[in-house]
Amino acid sequence: MPWARFESSKQFEQLVSTLRVLKSSHTMTKSSPECIFCKIVAGQIPSQKVFEDADTLAFLDIKPVNNGHTLVIPKIHVPYFYDLDNKNYAKLMQTVKNVSRAIEHAVKPAKVGLLVKGFDVDHAHIHVIPLNNNADIQATTFSPTDKQLAETAENLRKGIK
Ligand SMILES: [Zn+2]
């Protein structure tokens, strides 16, 4: 059978799905030698650990917005959270939720907010931040018109697979 001929569209979809898994496993490496967060996972750099399980780690940010500001990371090295496969993404967000509850209980902020920037360390991390008012992480630098908002939403809808 010629490799590029498919007997059904289902067969083709299965191949595409397999390729996606291969791509994501290629992106996800166990650790990166120069990565600060991989070193924290390995215990080579100290951190104030808040929670740890087989796949995720939560520790205090050393430059917190507020007291209790925690970073939650996957133990495997991936640059962006959207590089994680769905299973590891779900595990990461489960820890984010548990840490948020712990912050709410222990720190008693007005709200607990999430932030992902990704400029500082090239290893996926979610900031879990106790918030006392909107200005704590507010940064409005772009004021779009209604038309711009509509165009952007349209472009994003096209990009969702
Ligand atoms: Zn890393």
Secondary structure elements and pairings:
Layout: H1 9-27, H2 36-41, E1 49-52, E2 56-60, E3 70-74, H3 86-107, E4 111-115, E5 126-131, H4 146-159
The structure holds zinc ion (ZN).
Description of the molecule:
This protein is an alpha+beta fold and 161 residues long. It has a domain at 29-138: HIT family, subunit A (2-Layer Sandwich). It is 38% helix and 16% strand. It contains four helices and five strands. It has helices spanning 9-27, 36-41, 86-107, 146-159, and strands spanning 49-52, 56-60, 70-74, 111-115, 126-131. The chain has a five-stranded antiparallel sheet with strand order 1-2-3-5-4, covered by helices on one side. Zinc ion binds next to helix 2.
Distinct ligands: zinc ion
* Rg result: 20 Å
Uncertain regions: pLDDT < 50 for 5+ in a row? Answer: none
CATH class of the domain at 29-138: Alpha Beta
The helical percent reads 25-40%
**Known CATH architecture of the domain at 29-138:** 2-Layer Sandwich
Structural class: alpha+beta
- Assess the beta-strand content as a share of residues: 15-25%
Average pLDDT confidence is 86
CATH superfamily of the domain at 29-138: HIT-like
Which of globular, elongated, flat, extended, rod-shaped describes the shape? globular
What is the rounded distance between the termini?
30 Å
Please, how many helices?
Answer: 4
Give the spatial strand order of the biggest sheet: 1-2-3-5-4
The ordered H/E elements are: HHEEEHEEH
Total beta-strand segments = 5
Biggest sheet, open or closed, and with what strands and sense?
Answer: 5 strands, antiparallel
